[in-house]
Write a structure and sequence with these properties.
86 residues; mainly alpha
């Protein structure tokens, strides 16, 4: 019972955070987009804004996503190996 109440509390809290963040999303998106349009050539040296965003601004995001994927695969292989044929 206690765990169910905690789960409901966390879900409600996450809902409020997402609701508040969604209200400010349009302002943030416009500021970020304006920064990219103004500064992509000086920041990255790329002649194309789309290439600058994918290859330079999002590079770390892509690298860390790949790292998380590899870590989860290694973890699952480890657990399947330990579990055996049960």
């Amino acid at each position: 019972m206690r765990q169910a109440a905690l789960t409901v509390f966390v879900l409600v809290l996450m809902g409020f955070v997402l609701l508040i963040a969604n209200g400010h999303r349009e302002i943030l998106d416009n500021e970020v987009a304006a920064y990219y349009v103004r500064n992509f050539t000086s920041d990255t040296g790329a002649g194309n804004a789309v290439a600058a965003i994918y290859l330079n601004y999002r590079m770390y995001d892509t690298v860390f996503e790949a790292l998380i994927l590899i870590t989860s695969i290694i973890g699952m292989l480890h657990f399947f190996k330990i579990g055996g044929n049960k």
